[in-house]
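Why predict the complex rather than its parts? Because the way molecules touch one another can change local conformation, and only a joint prediction can capture that. The input here totals 737 residues.
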Amino acid sequence: MMAARKRILVVEDNTALARVVQFNLERAGHDVVVANDGQKAWAVLAGETPFDMVVTDQQMPVMTGVELCQHMRHCERFAQLPVIMLTAKGLELELSQLRDKLGIAAVLPKPFSPHGLVEAIEELLAAAVS
Amino acid sequence: MFRQRFNIPLARRVTAYYLLFCLLTTAWFTVGALFIGRSVLNAHAESDCLLKLGRVSNTVQLELRKNDAANLQRLAERIRAESSLNYCAVVSADGLVLAHSNASLVGESYQAPVGERKQWDSIQRVRYVATDSQPLREYRAPLGSDNGSPALHIAVAEAGFFAPSSRAVPHALFLVMGAALFIGAGALVVYRNVQPLTQIDAQLCDVARQTSPSQFTLATVLPRGAASVGWNRLVTEKMTGTEQPSLHERLAGAVQGLGRQKADDILNSLADGIAVTKAVGTIEFVNQAAVAILAPGSGADALLGRTVESCFDFADQDAARNALLDPQAKSRSVVAELARTNGGEKQVLRVARHPFRTADKKSGAGFVWSVRDITQQKLAEKMRDQFLDAATHELRTPLANIRAYAETLMLSEVPDVEQQKQFYNTINSEAIRLSRFIDDLLSVSSIEGGALALDRQSVHVDRLLNEAINKVRPQMDQKSITFDCTLPEKMPELLLDKDKLTAALVNLLGNAAKYTPAGGRIMLNVKISAEQLQIDVQDSGIGIAEDELAKVFEKFFRSNDPRVREENGTGLGLPFALEVARLHGGTLTATSQLDKGSTFTITIPLK
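Output of the joint prediction:
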């Protein structure tokens, strides 16, 4: 059975990085929408079509990744939406806190492997379905 | 964990072991010497006897030749008496006793004794025990050369175990006394050397028994020898803050001895604020620094008589309050950091409270407070943390791109050749970006370390300017920014550090390009007079707000303007350029109008 195409929101202020992530995710058979900061991402989320996953950077202007997550979790609609965080801060963020308080399923420190990111996404999507 | 066996003081224990082993050694040697002496003496005795045998044998043979057997009996008795023999006998070849000092045995057949035998040619010796339990040695020698001649038997009492030994006793006594003297002296020396370590050892054993470091109690010992002095130094160093007098206490103590005026002078010269509260809790003394920190603009009277609590604002700072105002910790020093509003300005203070002891070492007489304004330090730390955040981001972002694009090219098929080229391009430019950032970091660390030094050479100013312009040209072209250059006609050679000045200029031009929107304008104006070199970089960009203008030259400072935050920057370019100008003996200044543009001016004196 072929997996349905999932909709993934990529939030990243570095355009080059966003582009390569989009390339890899589309390669893996998903639909990707890119937003350059937390606020734009929020606007996209609020739109009609639902998303299956959010992949977001942490340090962004206007609204950070953590702030975006907080907004999401306070909203009924996105409380369960799986989130993966990419961050240049690496392991300085409290992983357990992120997981418990914000429901961030995985944190990938930069520089990350796009391959690894795709695998993590597949895993989480499979888990979400079951 | 450690057995209580070692309750005996170290010195005594060591000396006891020493004496024990010395005694064992001495006993061993003594017994050995006795044995050796005994064997030597026995050997002597043996040869003595053989000599005796020879002499007696000659005498008897002479007598036999002269008078035959007539006087043999009397001779035997006489010989026995003269030579201190047990008995002396002449026995015929057939075993008949011809003469015997014990007259009753004459004419009897001779009973050969049974025992350990030894033979030297024709002489025999037997060791046996006589009927009266006396150990004897009997020597037998033939009295003629043929088999029919009689034999002479003499017997000597075997020396008892102790007899030869007893002869050695005076010598032995002398040796033993000498040994005892040396051992005793050794014990004394050992004891005296180890004695100073006894207390140290006892303390260490105590420490071994404690379960937690807070129970460690170490004390200084009487200084006797290098080890105890070293121990005392260690204890003083490690235990400061527990029972040792702090700097402030010692200072207060020393100061008390110096008289009031000198005391005030010393205390007023300190940079830290010092306050003293007596047992009642009100401030009795403040130095100038304390007034400057806590009540600037007022005098000491603003603080004297107040409680410490009233000088600080402990609201919402429970941890600090509990630490500093803890009534339980009367004999310990405590330190805490506090925030405080000083007439509108926010301060961060490091406050320490030390118990103040009177001359007779009783604590509870009051407290010595030290106050240090660490606002600047905290600010610097905050800026450094901000910088580290920015730096890690600036380092990891290009790396993330390099890795992601490289891996994608490796693992996925990128069918579109144009796209492939784009990917390679991105990797390349990100690598260059990373390299430039690292250069920035390194120049800044040279500023920090004061390692930035000038390498003045004779430089063609036009070449310097061209190099800088060419580096920034691509950025300007990309944003379609017009670039105007006004240069003097004659561009001389000047003594400058070409590399650093070029880098500084690239910084200024680069900033202009970064913060000027597309289609804007940048002007470079160079004026060279006899006295100075002046370079103006003017742009039509986003400008700098008035309240930030002074701060742009601070390390790591980045404006809060979102248009600035959008661009990549570390806040290091301008401080670097400023330092370069300063090293040349000149200045770097800035004027600006928000949303209109900025002008940066480097001036370098040429005399």
